[in-house]
Amino acid sequence: MTPQAAGPPVHVRAAGLAKSFGPVRALRRADLTVTAGRISALVGENGAGKSTLMQLISGDLSPDAGALDVGVRVGLVRQQLSTVDELSLLENIVFGAEDAAGTGAWPGRLLGGISWSAHKEGVRDLMARTGIVVPLAKPAAEVPVGVRQRVDILSALYRGARCLLLDEPTTYLTPREVDTLFEVMRDLAAGGMSVVFISHRLREVVQHCDEVNVLRRGESVLHLPAAPFELGRIGRAMTGGDDAAGGEATGAARPAGAPPGVPVLDVGGRLSVRAGEIVGIAGVSGNGQNELLDTIAGLQRSAAHLPLTIDGREVSRWSTRARRAAGLRFIPESVKESGSAPAASITDNVISAVPPPGLRGRLGLLRRGKADQLARSLVERARVVASSTRQPASELSGGNLQRVAVARELGDGARILLAHEPTRGVDFAGVALIHAQLREFTSRGGAVLLVTSDVDELLALSDRVHVIDRGRLGRDYERDELTLGRLGELLGGLGHDVAAARHEEVP
Ligand SMILES: Nc1ncnc2c1ncn2[C@@H]1O[C@H](COP(=O)(O)OP(=O)(O)OP(=O)(O)O)[C@@H](O)[C@H]1O
């Protein structure tokens, strides 16, 4: 790296970077300068090329063209979690995901002569310094996604990264955790580190970052070197001034529709969802949300042996398949991990969930043309950026994969939707689109059980809200009874600080 005449050292300088994957031009001309002591935001629509740029800087990919100068050790914390289920959190932090995945480059070097107790000390010290604390002895499989993400951050720091690349780190975090993360980032930056922060939550960006870089369709289109930042300007740069797809902000109130009807889903009399209704579940991630949804979906047995009914019929002993056939659909917390088949094409991912009648010909053989047609119309409706429906799901950007999963689960035959973080990783135009899809689904008599850590989303969509804490569901509150402040009081005892959530308009 060329020494600077004055000012803080530049850690990364990228100019005119291009990268294609076969026919897909993920990056055409990307520029980014990352400076010590600063938190730089990188924003752009789903598929704009943000993750690709991060992978070029981290060295996971090499550019086809352009100049890239990286002067310090870089730690990339990816969108998709890289913890290994069977390993303890300590092991995950110490080995680091890349090496656990097989390069074997550094553990041997670092572990030579160093004991596990020394690592434990080192990691404990790191946790104390950064305030990012995780239960070290627990296996990764037993902790919620939010904790596993913190493990990835600790891992990068433990490996001596001076430049942290955080690809959507806040999607798993509650508002208070987001604030804590930024306090940590601020401290790290004050200590001479640099941070690149990717997020679709533009409010976080303008509030916490020192500079903003916008990518649109693989090109750097805007660099704002200093606050104050104007949300509208950033939004317009992201979309090219085309706000048509954006629609309303996430904070919009639910339009008045037909009054919700009969309960279609009931869990032991404690939780019920009626036709035409969205019932929200609020709580700190890891308080039983996964268990609740997995039990309803038939992926695990109810520990409390609560009766579960769909349309008044007891279904506790039904298979997942039978539940799907009854119209139950599920968007899991991490679509990348458990809601998609990465090697299969977009078409196969779309039709995998109980192929609708009409897709099979005589002898039960799949009619490919029809299946592709169905996938194409769905991809179009969900505004997915993909070169073709034959593309494997693994090649889709995170937000685009999420759009595919939502559209698939809302497809033919859906009557009850379990939606866990339905807009995770989706840009603001996509969030508005998915919210509109959920409302449209309920206006046709669909029932939605919504679990989200985004309090704005919870209040924007839910007709009623239950709070969940340590596996227990509290009473429900009607939407009219709840303001952001009231929800904050309810969650206050659970370590939330929703007062930190804001209601500014997103363009
Ligand atoms: N390995 C790959 N093979 C083929 N295409 C790919 C591959 N990786 C990414 N792409 C494509 O490159 C484009 C940019 O993807 P990238 O993941 O960088 O976008 P992103 O801005 O991070 O999106 P998101 O906000 O949805 O995470 C997308 O069209 C994506 O489908």
Q: Can you offer a commentary on this structure?
A:
With 507 residues, this protein is α/β, with parallel strands linked by helices. The chain folds into two domains: 10-98 and 119-239, 3-Layer(aba) Sandwich (Rossmann fold), CATH 3.40.50.300; 263-338 and 404-494, P-loop containing nucleotide triphosphate hydrolases (Rossmann fold). The protein is built from 18 helices and 19 strands. The chain has helices at residues 50-58, 89-95, 97-103, 107-111, 116-130, 145-158, 175-190, 202-208, 231-239, 289-297, 320-325, 335-338, 346-351, 368-381, 398-409, 428-443, 455-461, 484-492; strands at 10-21, 24-35, 39-43, 65-70, 74-77, 163-167, 194-198, 211-216, 219-224, 263-267, 271-274, 278-282, 308-310, 313-314, 328-331, 416-420, 447-451, 464-469, 472-478. Strands 5-6-7-3-8-9 form a six-stranded mixed β-sheet, with helices on both faces. The protein has a six-stranded mixed β-sheet with strand order 15-16-17-12-18-19, with helices on both faces. Strand 1 (10-21) and strand 2 (24-35) form a beta hairpin. Helix 2 (89-95) runs parallel beside helix 6. Adenosine-5'-triphosphate is lined by residues 21, 24, 26, 44, 46-52, 385, 395-400, 425. It holds the Pfam family ABC_tran. This is Simple sugar transport system ATP-binding protein.
